[in-house]
Structures are given as C-alpha cells and as structure tokens.
Amino acid sequence: MDCRGQGGGWRSADTADVGDAGLPSTPGFLTRGITDPASHYYTRLFVDAARAVDAARTWTGASGRPIVTAGASQGGGLAIAAAHLSGKVAAVLTDVPFLAHPLRALEVTDSNPYNELAEYCKVNPDKADQVFGTLAYVDVVNHAKRATASALFSVGLADTITPPSTVFAAFNHYAGPKDIAVYPYNGHEGGGTPHFCAQLAFLRQAGLRCSPAGSP
Fold first, then answer.
1. Within-domain flag for 9
2. Is residue 123 part of a domain?
3. Which pLDDT score, from 0 to 100, does residue 216 have?
4. Which of 79, 82, 89, 172 is deepest in the core (most CB within 10 A)?
C-alpha cells in the first residue's frame, strides 16, 4: 500500500495526506493529530489499509482468490488492522509489527518512531492523557483481539524499534489461529530470507497457493 504522505524518505510515493489539518506535532507521523482519534494520522492509515483489501477484492485478477495481508514494522501493524477492519482476509503475515502496546514501548526504548511520543509529551505534558487515549484506537493489540484469520508473526529479540515485548503483546492477544517465529539474534529486520521461506510454508499449510494471477 502506498502510505499517504510518506514519500520522500527511504522510498518514493505518490499519495498525499489530504486529511492532515496541520496541527502541531513532532517530526514524523506518529503525533500528527494525536489529540483526537478522528484526526490522528494512523486512523486514516488504518482505514486506508482496510479499503486496500476491498480494492484488491474488486480486481478481476483476484476473483475467487484468497486475500493475504502482509507487511513488516508499520506494514505489520497495518496487516493486522486491515485483517480486523475488513474481516475479509484468509491469512495475515505480520513481521515485527509496529504500534503494539505503545505505552510499553516507551518504557523500554528511546528509538524512533516511539520516541516521537516522548518528545511530544515532553513539550505538551497536559495532553498526555489525550495522546494515549487516541493511541488506544490504533493500538495493534486491540485490533489483534478482533482479528480471526490465521496469522504468522515474527519477532527479533534484539529489536529496539519494535521491542519484542510489544510484539508478543499483539501475538498473545491475537484471536485467530496463530504462530510466531522467534529470531534471538535479529533486530528490526526480523528473520530475513529464512523467515520468507517460513511464510511460504505457512501459506502452504493453510492451503493457500502462491501462484501468480492467471496461473492454475
């Protein structure tokens, strides 16, 4: 999914964030519109993810085929949220998912993007309750509690960006059939190529073929 407004950093993109009201925030995306769930950047992004599933289902090449949501870090969080909000996916591949238990993340890491929250609350201590009230709407743990498709998680135990305890929080609360691949020596890159092979095996076991559209 082309995440709105995020082009210009490590990758290019074409989609503008037309819903951004320009409210004060720290550099990055996590605190944009953070004082209200209706204006929060990730509210818009989660809705985009659910609509992306709907769009995929209307594509003629996907007719009769199962939809799998997949992603890493931010994409891992979106994969879970899209599975919950759309309710129309066959499986979820979520690697080192971001936005799970953000309050816990702030307790154990000072890495960005979670550090954006600390910087914002440092300047706006009177808004801390609003910040974490808003984050409850996009906390991936709360979406995991309502997602029922089969899911394969991955976690790197040396990850300082999405700390392992936050990933396990999402995994432990996930409502559907689930498994997790644990990589003791990996950081935020997760399991790399070995994990990609594990994902293919997971899909095969779930009866989901990985053939291109148009092939048998």
1. no
2. yes
3. 44
4. 82
Which amino acid would we find at residue 118? A
The residues annotated as belonging to the active site are: 73, 159, 188
On the 0-12 / 13-18 / 19+ scale of CB atoms within 10 A, 193 is: exposed
Sign of CA dihedral 191, 118, 81, 9: negative
Mean pLDDT across 29-35? 97
Tally the C-alpha atoms within 13 A of residue 87's C-alpha that lie toward its C-beta.
1
Average pLDDT over residues 201-209: 88
Residues 6+ away with beta carbon under 8 Å from 42: 29, 30, 99, 138
Prediction pTM value: 0.93
Q: How many CA within 13 A on the CB side of residue 162?
A: 29
Rounded to an integer, what is the distance from CA 106 to the centroid of its chain?
Answer: 17
Range of the domain at 101: 41-205
Number of domains in the chain: 1
Least confident of 60-69, 146-155, 160-169, 206-215: 206-215
CB neighbours of residue 13 within 10 Å = 14
Instruction: Identify the pLDDT of residue 209.
Output: 66
pLDDT tens-digit readout, 172-197: 999 999 999 999 999 999 999 999 99
CATH of the domain at 105: 3.40.50.1820
121 located within any domain? yes
212 domain-assigned: no
**What does each C-alpha distance from 40 to 2, 30, 106, 138, 190 come to in angstroms?**
18, 8, 19, 9, 28
